[in-house]
Amino acid sequence: MNDVKDSFAAMRDAVQRFHDKHDLKNLGGEDLVYRVALMAEELGEISACVTKGRDREALAEECADLLILLLGTAISADFALDRAFWDKMDALMKRSSRMVAGRIRVSEFRDS
Ligand SMILES: [Mg+2]
Predict the structure, then answer these.
(1) Residues lining ligand 1 (ion), CB within 5 A?
(2) Is 70 exceeded by the pLDDT of residue 1?
(3) Residues 3 and 34 occupy one common structural domain
(4) Which residue range forms the structural domain that includes residue 57?
């Protein structure tokens, strides 16, 4: 165990406080097109960590950036990300897997 506050509610509330602190709702920070661009930017930073061989701490920081943006996008678009997570996780657990180009892929595989 570690001492990190890891409940979904605590993380969502922290992101809400960040949105409130900078008034993202009224200053364009909750615009979904803008948020998608920011998430793509962070995904690129995650990719660079891997392709440029950066250390684990750098990768963790960039993943945290993306998670914070995802939590904030759920706030911006007013949906329950925890509910969506568990609904999707339940669906994923029912899917099959197969090897595709040397790597495992879990999908619906509509052709099978
Ligand atoms: Mg970043």
Answers:
(1) 42, 45, 62, 65
(2) no
(3) yes
(4) 1-79
